Fold this protein.
Amino acid sequence: MSAKNELLALLRQSEGFVSGEELSRRLGVTRAAIWKNIELLRAEGYTVESVTRRGYRLRDVPDSISEAEIRANLCGHGSFGCRVVSLPSVDSTNEEAKRQGDAGAPHGSVFVADEQTGGKGRLGRRWISPPGSGLWFSILLRPDVLPNEVTGVTLLSAVAVCRGIRALTGCEAKIKWPNDVVIGTKKVCGILTELSAEMEHIHYLIPGIGVNTGTESFPPELADRATSLLLETGRPVRRAALLGKILEEFELLYDRYGVSSFPEEYRSLCVTVGRTVSLRRAGRQLVGTACGVADDGSLLVKTRSGETLTVSSGEVLVQGFYGEHIEGA
Amino acid sequence: MSAKNELLALLRQSEGFVSGEELSRRLGVTRAAIWKNIELLRAEGYTVESVTRRGYRLRDVPDSISEAEIRANLCGHGSFGCRVVSLPSVDSTNEEAKRQGDAGAPHGSVFVADEQTGGKGRLGRRWISPPGSGLWFSILLRPDVLPNEVTGVTLLSAVAVCRGIRALTGCEAKIKWPNDVVIGTKKVCGILTELSAEMEHIHYLIPGIGVNTGTESFPPELADRATSLLLETGRPVRRAALLGKILEEFELLYDRYGVSSFPEEYRSLCVTVGRTVSLRRAGRQLVGTACGVADDGSLLVKTRSGETLTVSSGEVLVQGFYGEHIEGA
């Protein structure tokens, strides 16, 4: 660890003020070096009080996703976050995870970026990821299952994000099938999972998660569809804290369910069930009522003709969500 | 096409001799250029007869995997081989296919190499691929199915290789479950399929195929397990011709079955069924009799206690094959 990060860790642990003399002694550097590193921390946005004869105190931390800030927010038990790669800008955190996965990065590695220049959404869409406005990250998993046994991971990811958002903001985050996280009727988080595999062996599985944290406003065409934690609560959330909480919840769920079984909590979080939905099937747009989620994660939809469809992929519009009004609903 | 490849194509089409004058006229180059290109072809191993006043005749082609030689062996209808990349040496044709797949190479692209320096087999094994001794290639597929619907591709690949080997050599190639191609009791071809996907969309699916064509002898530890087409027939087979035939058969099967359904022909080619087999299950080595192949490609094994197991992955030893003697069989 660098002297700066050691200093930060010491300040973080301390309840009140710590004298320059003690910091100098514990880090084994001169008091001039302590002062220099305090200035470096201030330049990064840390609020460090300094009072003559009392010393230094950490009063506030910035919304930083530096590796030091992320490490300070990991719960410390578990392997998720064993390796953290934080980048100012990247094409897509999933692409970075794939590159490093190909090069042998271990299970539990986390890739996070302040900005994605080519962020990806489901179904080939773009995911707008401007600097500082959201938490964009990917987790590299190496589960020992067959490639056709991983559908649970996307449900798990959505549940973990709900838990993380609820714990840190109190917002009632829920899930729009299959894995959008919504607050009210608007999307706050999207998840795109990718994998690389042989027929009998998974090289890696990568859930990529994008949470709108600090966006202050959306363009008019998105205002009905998208929201951010800032817009919902009026208060900023620290991305490193949210990341730490989501990783902790994700690992708890992963250890309990793996990627092959169904996390029961998904059902109670899924807002799609019970609502009027619209979807394409065999070239036609059908309307029906979502009546449940099967154990393989498929959405069950009862059509007006009384037939029950099993929907395992594609887009499902939900009446009243994302500004959708379904014809005849 | 280069003048050399145009010249080669002309010589290939011609039944008998073609005069230098006619070649010069049809290619629009000088007779000196014709002579120069004939010399280039000879340097590549082509046997071109030249007889005064009659002209030139192509008498024999080398075992080359140049793109020109491969193109000349494609059946011409179909999209497999729409793009052919032939390399003198590569880490692994699957790795090359993945790199070019990430960069957008189209469905049906084929990647072939004279030598693989890091050839890969199933279950993390190495696949020895010295220059000139085998046909090492990968096909890039972009099927429009879900990632858990691709298990058929590995069965399809094995059937296509059997058909190709039978057509070109007359050898009775068969399949050891799941997708080794064998002649007699020895392996002549291995297949490793890899894929990159999202939960709802396959980026690409790559069957990688390695056929031992020209190996003259195997080291003692492999002599019981491995064979080559040269060892089986005593005659060399041209890799470009074999590749062309396998691609043709593969595309026929692919168009008929896709990657999600079971190619019925697999059952009649599978030598494992009816034999004593041994496999690991829950930490124990079990012995039983292979009694069939399910429609999802799983091997059905009846154990001595009368139970029927469904085996979908891992290694299955077969009595009498690859020099295996199963204890108590």
User: Anything to note?
Assistant: The longest helix of chain B spans residues 239-257. Chain B touches chain A through 25 residues (CB under 8 Å). The CA atoms of residues 94 and 225 of chain B lie 24 Å apart.
